Amino acid sequence: MTHNPFDVTTIGEMMLRLSVPVGKRLETATQYDVNPAGAESNVVGALARLGRRCAWVGGLPRTPLGRFAANHLRLSGVTLEGITWCETGRMGTYFVEFSVPPRPTEVIYDRTDSCAAQLKPEQVNWDLLLNTRLLHLTGITPALSPSCRAIVHAALTRAHARGVPISFDINYRQKLWPPDEANRVLTEFIQGVEILFCSQIDANRIFGFVGSPEQVVRQLADLSRARQVVVTLGEAGIIALDRSTLRREAIQPTQIIDRLGAGDALAAGVIHGWLDNDPALGLKCGVALAALALSQHGDMLVTTPQELDTLLESSNTTVSR
Length: 321
Hints:
Blueprint: E1 6-11, E2 15-20, E3 33-37, H1 39-49, E4 54-61, H2 64-76, E5 83-86, E6 92-97, E7 106-110, H3 126-130, E8 132-138, H4 146-162, E9 166-169, H5 179-189, E10 195-199, H6 200-207, H7 213-224, E11 228-232, E12 238-242, E13 245-249, H8 262-275, H9 279-294, H10 305-314
Parallel strand pairs: 1-4, 1-8, 2-6, 4-5, 8-9, 9-10, 10-11
Antiparallel strand pairs: 2-3, 6-7, 11-12, 12-13
């Protein structure tokens, strides 16, 4: 049996997040907080900080901004050998105006023609990406460009052929593509994955699934044939179907400082449990890491294995070791 040097690998886009704090407006801002961000990199960044061997594959410009993003992954302990450094091109950016009711948080993308969006299948280090216990993909990448959609299709095809398990987070972005197109593409992409992540909201607006959380998670399982389906329910926590076992987990109370990245932290926790063949523990790790992410600035979670253990021990749930 071939030894896998990585526990989790992923491919996607890293962007720069420019945000203003609550009470400030983008149109009058004179300074911004700058953080690297990307759904896939957020997941492996959190897992690497928990001691997992992780690699991120993607395109970055050979500029100070590209190195800024890579350095944050390096600090997390993520392997960067799979980066394609572009001599021309740019990083995608997005602007965030945090707010409190009655205004919603505003997100503005500026990511067209980024290095990541222009990445082609022949530029991907497939040997590195697929030499892993688990490949993590999201529904964001295929929405970026035709070449990115081809990359995700190739990643799925090659992973299935090699017997590499796949986790797939629907992660729908309505500003990138319409629901009907997402339905057509993602229904094909999620077939036979190991773990499928989807919010109850996305299950409805993309796949038209309605009903109780139990009904929604079973509909997603029937559609995808995924071995484990995890549905996030907002304030109601999460529900998961692991083959025939249904589990629910309540959210952990937290003081919300920054909502962005919490879903990726939750996915990292679930995967952390999967790597130890303990899906019940994965759900507990997921809600714990999501709560921790909500309490920190920035999309990329900063934590330690010891901190996660403390959070699990202090929760109201019993953890089997």
